[in-house]
Amino acid sequence: MTTTEISPLIETDTFGKGHPNTRFDYMYRDADNYKQNTHVVMPGAVTLEQAVAIVDGLDDDGGFVPSGVGLPDLQGQMVTDWDEQSDHPYHEIMGISLTAEATTIEMTASEFVTLFAAADWGLEGARVTLENEPGAD
Fold it and tell me: What is the dihedral of CA 106, 67, 77, 128, to 10 degrees?
């Protein structure tokens, strides 16, 4: 996915205000359209260019696999069982912003950007991640 302008997923009004941390909101939506979302706040502020690079680094359908970048996958928190035929491992970014909120994880924003840039969103790699998920076959 390549953006030619700044994605609405990036809350640009939070940049340039001296906020020390980065908030990353994401969601899992299963084949039945049930949703589970969460957010993390990591120490350090991403630059606007890094936030754009994260969005540009999504797979062709705009998804990513959280465990590929050090974050928890949300499939195990769903109210429905994993359906091998129709469910998928991909999550959606709901927002990237800078914040003064307390951090919730130890991974720094810089480490996250590095992991995201190196991630491979291929389905085969994602299936390996899901082997230990509750409800996965």
Answer: -150
The token pair that represents 68 in the structure block: 């590929």
96-113: per-residue pLDDT in tens? 999 999 999 999 999 999
How many whole angstroms separate alpha carbon 113 and alpha carbon 51?
Answer: 8
Residue 55, phi then psi, degrees to nearest 5: -65, -40
Q: How far is CA 31 from the centre of its chain?
A: 18
Nearest 5°: phi and psi at 14? -90, -10
Residue with tokens 């606007």: 48
User: How far is the C-alpha of 114 from the C-alpha of 124, rounded, in Å?
Assistant: 21
pLDDT band at residue 123 using 50, 70 and 90 as cut-offs: low
CA distances from 112 to 44, 52, 79, 104, 137 (A): 10, 13, 29, 14, 30
- Show the tokens assigned to 95: 């927002």
Which three-class secondary structure state does DSSP give residue 76? helix
